[in-house]
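User: Hi! I have a protein structure encoded as tokens and I'd like to know what sequence might fold into it. I'm fairly new to this, so please keep things simple.
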């Protein structure tokens, strides 16, 4: 069984990205990402801090703006528009979820698509579906990169995605069905309405789980030799730890790992790859090549 070490791989990618950042600096460009957090959700705050810290480590400037949860939708739109108009800002990220009175779709649509380092803008989603060069959503890009660098080809294989979110499920499925060397998979997307989840998960060569339910996939769901990508990051109460909680995935590692040929741990699997891809997208946006670099080189 291969443990897919996203943490180590992300560290390697960070080193490569430092070189790209250096090249931008030599051209007088300081890559710069602006991150907006509305409210003080502890998980979101921790994600934004991790993203900002990773940026600084590779030489990308990061501006974090945290505003209160009762900020109006107009004020959030104004912040985004200011960053759109600021030539010194190359990447814009609005951390989700937003408070209930603000529609995420409207805010995302207001972001200049060439600065949309999350790849969530409808124009970028459309470009991804069409197989055109674009800013690819970070978690899906991180999953593909993880498989690619471990030389695990999905070509012709059955990839089963559990979860249909716009952040992970839909874009990762769209990436993996592209006609390309590192894709070309046969993809099934499962979701909460599936009448018999086992029927699908047991036929998976590669199982990608992005649901947000702690340890919902067990050894019973998978067949011998499966490759498992666990996107979940769930906090569960654990009074025996200093923080009072621990982080588990959407996959029950103890029962699934013995059957898997390769599996991502949580933490240390997909999470660090997501951040590495955010840095990659920010550099691409700063280079001005968001819509030029082929999806799959
Ligand atoms: N919330 C959970 N994942 C993400 C992500 O990838 N980007 C943003 N902006 N918010 C998120």
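Assistant: Happy to help. Inverse folding works backwards from shape to sequence: for each of the 297 positions I chose a residue that suits the local structure. Here it is:
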């Amino acid at each position: 069984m291969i443990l897919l070490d996203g943490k180590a791989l992300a560290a390697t990618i960070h080193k490569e990205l430092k070189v790209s950042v250096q090249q931008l600096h030599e051209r007088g460009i300081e890559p710069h990402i602006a991150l907006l957090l509305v409210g003080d959700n502890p998980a979101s705050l921790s994600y934004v801090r991790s993203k900002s810290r990773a940026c600084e480590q590779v030489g990308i400037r990061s501006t974090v703006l945290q505003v209160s949860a009762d900020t109006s939708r107009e004020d959030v739109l104004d912040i985004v528009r200011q960053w759109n108009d600021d030539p010194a800002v190359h990447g814009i990220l609005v951390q989700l979820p937003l408070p209930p009175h603000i529609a995420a779709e409207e805010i995302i649509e207001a972001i200049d698509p060439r600065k949309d380092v999350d790849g969530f803008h409808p124009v970028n989603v459309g470009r991804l579906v069409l197989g055109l060069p674009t800013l690819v959503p970070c978690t899906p890009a991180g999953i593909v990169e993880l498989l690619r660098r471990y030389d695990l080809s999905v070509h012709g294989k059955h990839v089963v995605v559990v979860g249909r979110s716009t952040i992970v499920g839909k874009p990762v499925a769209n990436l993996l069905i592209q006609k390309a060397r590192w894709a070309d998979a046969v993809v099934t997307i499962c979701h909460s309405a599936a009448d018999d989840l086992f029927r699908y998960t047991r036929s998976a060569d590669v199982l990608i789980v992005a649901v947000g339910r702690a340890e919902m996939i067990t050894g019973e769901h998978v067949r011998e030799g499966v490759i498992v990508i666990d996107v979940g990051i769930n906090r569960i109460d654990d009074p025996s730890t200093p923080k009072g909680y621990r982080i588990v995935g959407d996959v029950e590692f103890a029962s699934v790992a013995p059957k898997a040929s390769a599996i991502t741990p949580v933490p240390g699997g997909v999470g660090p790859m997501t951040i590495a891809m955010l840095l990659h997208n920010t550099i691409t946006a700063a280079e001005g090549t968001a819509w030029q670099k082929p999806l799959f080189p």
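A useful reference point when you look it over: The chain has two domains: 27-112, 138-271. Feel free to ask if any position seems puzzling.
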